[in-house]
Amino acid sequence: MQNSPSKSALLVMDMQNSVVSRFVAGEEALLPFQKAIEAARSHAIPVIYVRVAFRAGYPEISARNKMFGGIASRSGAVAAPEAMMQIHESVQPRQGEPIVTKVRVSAFAGSDLEVILRSRQIDTLILSGIATSGVVLSTLREAADKDFAITVLSDACIDADPEVHRVLTEKVFPQQAEVVPVDVWLSRL
């Protein structure tokens, strides 16, 4: 029996206004993301966007959650402005490209991402996003546990700490994923 060809999807994670405004100093840092998205589209690879968002009053957030627990108290339990939760204009989704909303760090946490992937018979994920030590790391680990093949686009990931980004992309991620710059990934399409 022959193996069927893999079916890939590009995940563009946490590229929403609230995150991009904190991590990206200049538009040139977004060029690898734009290049990957356009290449995926031109090769009929689905592009799936992932964002983090919460309901008014933050019922999804526990005070024990070290990463998200302080959000409700800092914002007076009022939902973040909708504009801050939207995908950044430089990497806007096209009509029909899903936007998955998650409530934790991993793209799978509290979202319907796995349902979308399985319904499309996707078995290979190409990961991009902000931050390398946040959504990319958490999603990579969970995707590996769910038996997806994984590629991380090293220059389409950003972290506040360049050394953490380097250690993750050079030492940690290769244990469970192929890690390549966007141009290398493009050369293989």
Automatic annotation (TrEMBL):
Pfam families: Isochorismatase. Keywords: Hydrolase. The keyword Hydrolase applies. This is Nicotinamidase-related amidase. SUPFAM superfamilies: Isochorismatase-like hydrolases. GO terms for molecular function: hydrolase activity. Residues 8-181 form the Isochorismatase-like domain. The keyword GTP-binding does not apply. Belongs to the isochorismatase family. PANTHER family: PEROXYUREIDOACRYLATE/UREIDOACRYLATE AMIDOHYDROLASE-RELATED.
